[in-house]
Each structure stands twice: as C-alpha cells, then as structure tokens.
Amino acid sequence: MMAYLVALHALAAVIWIGGLFFMVCILRPAAAAMPLAERLPLLSNAMGRFFLCVWIAIIVLLVTGNTVVFMTGGMAAAPVYVHVMQGLGWVMFALFAHMFFAPWRRMRVALAAGTLADAGRAMNQLRVLAGVNLALGLIVVVVGSGGRYGLI
Ligand code: HEM
C-alpha cells in the first residue's frame, strides 16, 4: 500500500514540475518570436490544459502525502525533510491558486475582449510566478527524494 502511495505521489510531482519546466523553459521561449496575437492564444490554450492537470496533481500530492504521514506516525514523528516538503508544498499550492484565480483569469478576460496589451501583462505575471513555483518545485523534489538518504 505504502509503495503505491509514494509512487503515485512521485508521479503527481513529475507531472506538475515537469510540466512547469516545459512551459517556462521550452514552450514560452520557443513561442517568443511569434506575434502577440498568435502567441497569447497558443500559451492560453496550453496553460488551460496544463492547469487542469495541476489541480489533479495537487489533490493527489495532498492525499497521498498526508496518508503516508498518517500511516507512519503523524507529523510529530515525521522527519525534517517531510516538514520542509509539506511547508514548501503549501507555498506552491497557494501560489498556484493565486495564479489560477488572478492573472490567469485576467489574461483570459483580456484575450476574449481583444485587449492584447492587458493579456500580455497578465501573461508576464504568470511567467514570473510559474518561474518561482518551478524553482520551489525543484527544491521540493530534491528534498523529498534525497531526504530519506540523509540529504537534509
Ligand atoms: C502536503 C504536502 C506534502 C506531504 C505531506 C508530503 C509527504 C511526503 C512523504 C511522507 C513522502 C515519503 C517520504 C519517504 O519516503 O521517506 C514524500 C516523498 C516525496 N515527495 Fe512529498 N509531500 C508533500 C508535497 C510534495 C510536493 C508539493 C512535491 C513536489 C512537487 C513532493 C515531492 C515528493 C517526492 C519527489 C518524494 C520522493 C518520492 C520517492 O521516494 O521517490 N511532495 N512526500
């Protein structure tokens, strides 16, 4: 049971952080040369699909992570790296929720209204926040996978 939970947990992390890496480091730079009127709909479409996956990944991370913690004696008995993972995880979840409900919403409204400059500004905010979440996510993966072997 524990093996399946940790495997599911790792899969959800791979999908979220791998997707962020692709969006920030590959797709956005590749689309940078396109005119705004073509780039924004493409990025908006890609983000809409990705954000759905992120909501599912967050639910899976929370359920599997907390079940493993519960099965191993609760947070009081959890090693430091699990506390760090959970703490940074909550910062990442909050940042993602902010992205989804603020700049992402503004971007879609502006795009639908044809105000490309506003949509571009909101997309820029999304890029910065996605970069921060990617950096945090990479740290969490290092902490979560190396922690059991004494990394921290
Ligand atoms: C509510 C938040 C979270 C809790 C309670 C939690 C809990 C846990 C626990 C108990 C483990 C097993 C540790 C061990 O094997 O000793 C684990 C492993 C791991 N977690 Fe988390 N976690 C959380 C969030 C996250 C997030 C946000 C990520 C990355 C995006 C993440 C990535 C990982 C990785 C990569 C592993 C290692 C899996 C492996 O052993 O291959 N976790 N987590």
From TrEMBL:
Name this protein carries in UniProt: Membrane protein
- InterPro entries (UniProt xref): Cu-R_CopD_dom
Q: Please list every transmembrane segment annotated in the UniProt record, as residue ranges.
A: 6-27, 48-68, 80-101, 128-151
A Pfam family per the record: CopD
Domain Copper resistance protein D positions? 46-143
**Superkingdom of the source species:** Bacteria
Q: What species was this sequence derived from? A: Salinisphaera orenii MK-B5
Gene Ontology CC, one term: membrane
Q: Which UniProt keywords apply?
A: Membrane, Transmembrane, Transmembrane helix
